[in-house]
Amino acid sequence: MEFKNILLEEKEGIAYVTLNRPKALNALNTEVLSELDSAFRYIDKTEDIRTVIVTGSGRAFIAGADIAQMSALDGTEGRDMTIQGQKVMELIENINKPVIAAVNGFALGGGCELAMACDVRFASEKAKFGQPEVNLGIIPGYGGTQRLPRLVGKGMAKYLIYSAELISAQEAKEIGLVQKVVPAEELMAEAEKFARTIMAKAPVAIKMAKVAINNGMNLDLNSGVAYEAEAYTSTFVSSDRVEGMRAFVEKREAQFKGK
Ligand code: CO8
């Protein structure tokens, strides 16, 4: 698929989504959001794609929503742009395959929010994270006030949002925002290695793990555990479960079929 502001490539089961507006540090305007929406809808329904890696071209992952565009909006238009972005983040969060953010540089405001909508975040040592919206007189509007506290706790989320402080990749890892920090030149290889690790596992199990974790996070513990039982049962009745357990007993590699 061809886009103006993003690149979408597919190789060996991995879809690569690269934000490609380097002159504006890959800022998210309404056109970029709409392209991301189309790209992720396509990825969601394309069976050959098993995992996704999102990254940015140039020195930024995404430096936030496009401030030049936002500065010209009135309240209603601002609300529409927030809702458009929130929907894209929800789509990324809930597509039926894992999404890895390979954060190569600035992940600020909407950029940090997009990274948080991904399943896991790998960061280059050069990456910087932050929610600097209060500097502009706004608050995070692509889910940041909700996903950040869920990832790093309420106190740290308030610290970052109130201060607008930018933190290093290492600090982001220490607070649990990032799972792995690697030298810049190893970022894509590490993300791909993790994608291949995931693709070697039972596909139904990976799908159900994602669904159980995502939906469970929106429920109280008892409802979440009940939800887990249903998701677990879907894996238990799969032929991959039979194969996985048989392979263990027979001391051989499992051959999963995704059924
Ligand atoms: N939007 C538009 N353009 C941007 C953005 C942005 N978020 N960030 C950088 N750019 C542009 C700059 O204007 C500049 O363009 P030009 O060369 O034409 O002047 C170019 O990218 C390079 O930027 P800098 O010259 O500023 O580069 P520096 O290395 O000096 O600084 C920074 C890099 C620190 C990343 C700096 O650019 C910066 O602070 N950017 C803004 C970061 C920010 O505040 N992000 C949060 C935005 S708000 C948001 O994301 C809210 C999400 C919810 C929105 C709801 C919709 C209504």
From TrEMBL:
InterPro entries: ClpP/crotonase-like_dom_sf (IPR029045), Enoyl-CoA_hyd/isom_CS (IPR018376), Enoyl-CoA_hydra/iso (IPR001753), Enoyl-CoA_hydra_C (IPR014748). The keyword Lyase applies. GO terms for molecular function: 3-hydroxyacyl-CoA dehydratase activity. The keyword Lyase applies. Keywords: Lyase. One of its GO terms (biological process) is fatty acid beta-oxidation. It holds the Pfam family ECH_1. PROSITE patterns: ENOYL_COA_HYDRATASE (PS00166). CDD domains: crotonase-like. It is an enzyme of class 4 (lyase). SUPFAM superfamilies: ClpP/crotonase (SSF52096). Its EC number is 4.2.1.150. Pathway: Lipid metabolism; butanoate metabolism. It catalyses: a short-chain (3S)-3-hydroxyacyl-CoA = a short-chain (2E)-enoyl-CoA + H2O. Homotetramer. Belongs to the enoyl-CoA hydratase/isomerase family. This is short-chain-enoyl-CoA hydratase.
